[in-house]
Design brief:
Number of domains: 1
Largest sheet: 7 strands, mixed
Number of strands: 7
Distance between the termini: 47 Å
Strand content: 15-25%
Radius of gyration: 19 Å
Order of helices and strands: EHEHEHEHEEHHE
Structural class: alpha/beta
Helix content: 25-40%
Oligomer: single chain
CATH architecture: 3-Layer(aba) Sandwich
Number of helices: 6
Shape: globular
Length: about 220
C-alpha cells in the first residue's frame, strides 16, 4: 500500500497524522510526504528542511517531496494542483492525508483547496487537523495508542518549532497530546487521531458464505 501525506509546512503532517503514518509503516506500507513550503518564515529554510527529513525517518517514511514554495507566498491554486498531481503520478497512493480546509492559516486553506481538485480521481482522501484548524468534526478515527510515543518523537525532530506555538509555556507536543487524548475519548480509546473524509472507499471482503445463499422458498426442499 502506498500512502501520501501532504502538508503545507514542515511539521504539519507529524501533528495531524503522524501516529497513523507510523501505524501504516509498521504494517509494511510505503509512506511518502509532500511538504509544500520550506517553512522559512518560521526559521531558516535549511534547518527546517533538515528537521523535516529527520522527522520523516522517525515516521518510517521512505521519501520527502518538496513543493519548493515559501510559506505565506504560495502561488495560485492552479499551480498547486499541478504540483500535487505530479507527486500523485509518482507515488500512486492508495490513501492521501492533507490539511483540513477550515483553518486560520491561509497556507493550510490553499493547500487543502488545491488537494480537493488534484485528488478528484483518488478513492481515499482524508483531512487531518492542526493547531489552527477550526470547526473540525472528525468521523473517522485511528487508534494510535501503540504509535503515540513515535508521533511525539517525530514532532520533537522539529526542534526549532517545538516552543513556537504562540501559547505561553506550551510546547507543540503538549498540544498534540491534548488533541490525541480528546480524539481518543471521542473514539473510546486512549489515544487517537481524527479525520474528516473527502472520500473513503470501504472494501467489504470475507462475507460468510451463508449470507450469499439464496433463501429457500416455503414448501420447497
Amino acid at each position: 500500500m502506498n500512502i501520501l501525506a501532504i502538508g503545507a509546512h514542515p511539521d504539519d503532517v507529524e501533528f495531524g497524522c503522524g501516529g497513523t503514518l507510523v501505524k501504516y509503516a509498521g504494517k509494511g506500507a510505503h509512506i511518502d510526504l509532500l511538504v509544500m513550503t520550506d517553512g522559512s518564515r518560521g526559521g531558516a529554510a535549511r534547518i527546517r528542511r533538515a528537521e523535516q527529513l529527520r522527522a520523516a525517518r522517525a515516521l518510517g517514511a521512505r521519501r520527502v517531496h518538496w513543493g519548493g514554495y515559501r510559506d505565506t507566498l504560495l502561488p495560485s491554486v492552479r499551480r498547486l494542483i499541478d504540483r500535487i498531481e505530479r507527486t500523485l503520478r509518482v507515488v500512486r497512493p492508495d490513501f492521501i492525508f492533507v490539511n483540513y480546509p477550515e483553518d486560520t492559516h491561509q497556507d493550510h486553506r490553499q493547500v487543502a483547496r488545491a488537494a480537493v481538485s488534484a485528488t478528484r480521481y483518488a478513492r481515499n482522501v482524508l483531512f487531518y487537523e492542526g493547531p489552527t484548524t477550526v470547526d473540525f468534526t472528525p468521523t473517522v478515527f485511528i487508534d494510535i495508542a501503540d504509535e503515540f510515543e513515535q508521533k511525539l518523537q517525530a514532532l520533537r525532530r522539529h526542534r526549532s518549532q517545538v516552543l513556537k506555538t504562540r501559547i505561553e509555556g506550551t510546547a507543540i507536543c503538549e498540544i498534540a497530546e491534548a488533541s490525541a487524548h480528546f480524539r481518543g475519548v471521542q473514539a473510546r480509546v486512549r489515544w487517537a487521531e481524527g479525520f474528516t473524509p473527502l472520500r473513503l472507499f470501504i472494501n467489504i471482503t470475507g462475507v460468510p458464505a451463508r449470507f450469499g445463499r439464496p433463501r429457500r422458498r416455503p414448501g420447497r426442499r
